[in-house]
Amino acid sequence: MGFLKKITKPISKFLDKVVPNEVKPFLPYVAAAAPFLAPTTGIFGSMAGRAALFGGANLAAQLAQEGSEGDFNPLSVLLAGGTGALTAPNAAASLKGMTTAGSIDPALGSSAQGDILAGRSFLTKAKDFGLTGLAKGAEGLQGIMTAARDNPFSMSGLKLAAIPTIQGTGDLAYAEGNRQMKAYEQAMAEFNRLQEEGSLNSYNDYYTNILKYMDLAGFTTEEAEAAAENVLSGINFAQGGRVGYYGGGDVTPPGMEMDLRVGGFIPIGRAERADDVKARVSKNEFVMTSDAVRGMGNGDPNVGAKRMYQLMNNLEARTV
Known about the structure:
Elements lengths: L1 H17 L8 H11 L9 H17 L10 H13 L4 H7 L2 H4 L6 H9 L3 H29 L4 H43 L5 H14 L4 H13 L23 E2 L19 E2 L10 H7 L4 H17 L3
Parallel strand pairs: 1-2
Helix pairs in contact: 2-3, 2-4, 2-9, 3-4, 5-8, 8-9, 9-10, 9-11, 10-11, 12-13
């Protein structure tokens, strides 16, 4: 799909610039609901027109998501286009007309019609079976749409609301999973680049630099931290040995022990309150909870850590 990405990537970049970030998460739901709310006249009245319009709306909603860079879920586009086609007023009749039974001349007697149907090949029977199923699906959608218009709060209304909700949620989940994968790949690429340079030798060195370059690449702090921890947690550094454990201690996975004898922020670990990071502390020292760090930063632990470093340095200066 490389050739296709050459087309979708510029579109994604354009949409990323013009669509506000606050609006982007709602676009998949709007695109998924559009076939059930749009008019049924003109280009919106034909199966082909509705398939193209609503498949295109789904594609645009996916490309507008943060970090898409032209990637999208083609199955979702096909599903949106198919749903749009089935909501056309003439969908059921058109699909039935494509079957063998629908194309038989009504003037033929029942015996001749039976012979034609009996003489169908396996592939023709399979085609007829599929078209008949789609026709029933179109009839079902039309029935749900009609009942929902009459009473939006009925069971039909709930069924109608569930369709775009499920698809919109699926599109957002795909976009998020795709972005997480890209974040991991970015973190791994930065780790490999830093190792080739050979200028770093501790977990914290790698962690800090990976975050710096991922920030420049446009990833959020949360994405960069998660990806960096994921990459570094299972890597034995090329320099060998217990890199970063110059203070001694048990052999633990890289980065799961920190020398905090001079104070400092703990950016690593599985989760808050997990108590999975070993830290070297001494008598008369004081450790803040993660909630206190976050409170210091008005909700941002990184800002809180910077302010606590400043506070620590100011207080230490008083003892000199």
